[in-house]
Amino acid sequence: MSDASALRKFLAHDPRNISLNCDYLDAALSEGRIDEAKAWLREAPVDVRENAKILMREARIALITGDLARSISILRGLLEAGQADDVAVRHDLAYAQSCLGDDAAALETLASIAPEHASDVALAILKARILYRQKQYASALDALASFVTGERIAEVHGLRAMLMLDTGRPDEAASEVRKALANVPEQQDALLVTGTLALWARQTEAAMDAFRRILAVRPQSARALLGLGESLMVTGDIAAARERIERAAAEMPDHIGTWHALAWCQLMEGDAAGAKHSFERAFAIDRTFGETHGGFALIHALRGERSEAEESIKRAKRLAPEGQTARYAQSVLLLDDGHPEEARRMVEGIVARTPGNMPVMSADFIFRLRDLLRPRG
Asked: Keywords for this entry (predicted)?
């Protein structure tokens, strides 16, 4: 018999026991029995439901089930009444606010917690994750700086690894990964960094293994879906790659890199219209990203729209002088001008300089794609 089931039997004889109610709700949440916990709350005596400790748990249930407005309403009411553990309430309130995308409000809530709670690891991790999402990497690392051991240390190391990866410090990221996995072998952030580093090193089997381990636990992890899709793209399994990357795009529609990866998949399948749509989605996020203009240039060039291609190449090279996609477009224009060997050399140079996590298209593929996409007649 589960803990929740056993506690439920005791509650049948003592339904107004607050401690027993709290223990039962905690056990039910731990065991994933959310609907059962909600049903119990609906049937509980009014004085039990109005107790601050019970309201805190109702707020957590609302948070878990996505009823963020209800969770925030309960938590704010508890704060205004001064009826519950201030730190726990503010943590959950900040978390709910961050889930709604109101990072400013979440950080303000965390800042209102008394300084003596600065050593609370749950607060530090939440603050670091919010700052990470805002790309305040140095501040996020500062929030975790004092934690070297103790509760949730594997998560601390995993989050540090992510931050170091995204700030161009792969060796330090790898070191943090080792510390995280030594404590918790399936720590999700650390596995994500493991997969990404393996992909960069073109160790695609190791990369796919790491991303699949994440997805076995969190099937909707957008970054793991993207990483697995990019790995599959590198191996040439474009259909499977596209399916994963499309799912990643649905989970994080504001991530430019995901739309670019999808556009490459679509190009490699000969779907110029789909690729153009994906580049347009990326353009809507950031109109100044050079590789997006390079993508437009390549599609125009493949279709034989020379003037549009040349204009897009100019914009792309102004914004990203070393961008690879505009160079692909230039190779197509060179082929149009009757310089196949020069076009081939340009593509070979692109391939040689392409990082391990990026797809490459050979000169022969580019030339066949050009012939496929040119209007007939």
From this structure: Repeat, TPR repeat
258's tokens: 């995901």
Q: Confirm if 256 and 292 have CB atoms less than 8 A apart.
A: yes
SS3 for 14? coil
DSSP state of 50: T
Cβ-contact 272, 373 below 8 angstroms: yes
- In this structure, which amino acid lies at residue 316? A
What is the per-residue burial (b if ≥16 Cβ within 10 Å, else e) of 359-377?
bbbebeebbebbeebeeee
- What does the alpha-carbon distance between residue 86 and residue 78 come to, in Å, rounded to a whole number? 9
CB atoms within 10 A of CB 151: 11
The pLDDT profile of the chain, 377 residues, written as one tens digit per residue, is 578 888 888 888 888 999 999 998 999 899 999 999 999 988 889 999 999 999 999 999 999 999 999 999 999 999 988 866 688 899 999 999 999 999 999 999 999 998 888 889 999 999 999 999 999 999 999 999 999 888 899 999 999 999 999 999 999 999 999 999 999 999 999 999 999 999 988 899 999 999 999 999 999 999 999 999 999 998 889 999 999 999 999 999 999 999 999 999 999 898 999 999 999 999 999 999 999 999 999 999 999 999 999 999 999 999 999 888 999 999 999 999 999 999 999 999 888 887 655 666 788 888 888 888 887 65
Alpha-carbon torsion angle 100, 103, 104, 108, nearest 10: 100
- Give the C-alpha distances (Å, rounded to integers) separating 221 from 127, 130, 182, 227, 238: 20, 17, 22, 10, 20
Task: Report CA dihedral (95, 100, 101, 102) to the nearest 10 degrees.
Answer: -70
H-run or E-run covering 108: helix 103-111
321 — phi, psi (to 5°)? -55, -30
- The DSSP call for residue 193 is H
**How distant, in Å, are the alpha carbons of 64, 75, 77, 153, 328 from that of 44?**
20, 20, 20, 38, 67
Q: Which tokens is 186 given?
A: 């399936």
Predicted model pTM = 0.86
